[in-house]
């Protein structure tokens, strides 16, 4: 899979804030710090992310989902390329679900609704769309991400 051709795609906008992203291993990877900054309402998003990583590791009994975080070079506000914690879409969704903030609640409710609809489709296959359930869920998640990061 090739990345979108537009170089402008390296910045996404979420709730009027810039979210840095990069194409790596045939997927988009998003700056976790940028997302945490937007959703956490913290004065120190780096510290917030550090504390959240530790909490997630303790709850999971391992580095999960932190073990799925990749450090990639992104352009920092000073214009330099710096190693930055990045997450793919799936891992980013898990991180967002862990942020107790009113700004994250609409997204969490949407994820809960998608999950509920998927369970209903499993219980009653007639409710499922013609595409495979996994494809449909993937399409829904990608559409949601485009809505939130347009």
Structure description:
Helix content is 46%, strand content 20%. It has five helices and five strands. The protein has helices at 32-40, 45-60, 89-97, 105-123, 133-148; strands spanning 11-14, 17-24, 27-31, 70-75, 81-87. A five-stranded antiparallel sheet has the order 1-2-3-5-4. Helix 1 packs across helix 2 (45-60) and helix 4 (105-123) packs antiparallel against helix 5.
Task: Summarize the entry for a quick read.
By secondary structure, this protein is an alpha+beta fold. Helix content is 46%, strand content 20%. The longest helix is centred in the C-terminal third of the chain and has 19 residues, at 105-123.
How do the strands of the widest beta sheet line up side by side? 1-2-3-5-4
- Overall spatial form: globular
Computed CA radius of gyration, to the nearest angstrom? 16 Å
Amount of helix: 40-55%
How many angstroms does the end-to-end distance come to?
20 Å
Q: Helix- and strand-based class?
A: alpha+beta
What is the averaged pLDDT score? 78
- Written as H for each helix and E for each strand, in order along the chain, the element string is EEEHHEEHHH
Number of distinct helices: 5
Largest sheet: 5 strands, antiparallel
Number of DSSP E strands: 5
Integer count of domains:
1
Strand content: 15-25%
**Uncertain spans:** none
């Amino acid at each position: 899979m090739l990345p979108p051709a537009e170089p402008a795609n390296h910045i996404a906008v979420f709730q009027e804030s810039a979210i840095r992203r990069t194409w790596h291993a045939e997927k988009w990877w998003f700056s976790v710090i940028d997302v945490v900054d937007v959703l956490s309402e913290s004065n120190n998003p780096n510290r917030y992310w550090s504390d959240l990583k530790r909490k997630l590791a303790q709850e999971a009994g391992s580095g999960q989902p932190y073990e799925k975080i990749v450090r990639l070079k992104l352009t920092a506000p000073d214009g330099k390329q710096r190693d930055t914690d990045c997450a793919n879409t799936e891992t980013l969704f898990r991180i967002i679900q862990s942020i107790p903030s009113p700004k994250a609640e609409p997204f969490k409710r949407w994820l809960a609704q998608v999950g509920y609809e998927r369970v209903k489709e499993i219980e009653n296959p007639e409710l499922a769309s013609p595409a495979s359930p996994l494809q449909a869920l993937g399409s829904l998640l990608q559409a949601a991400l485009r809505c939130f990061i347009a």
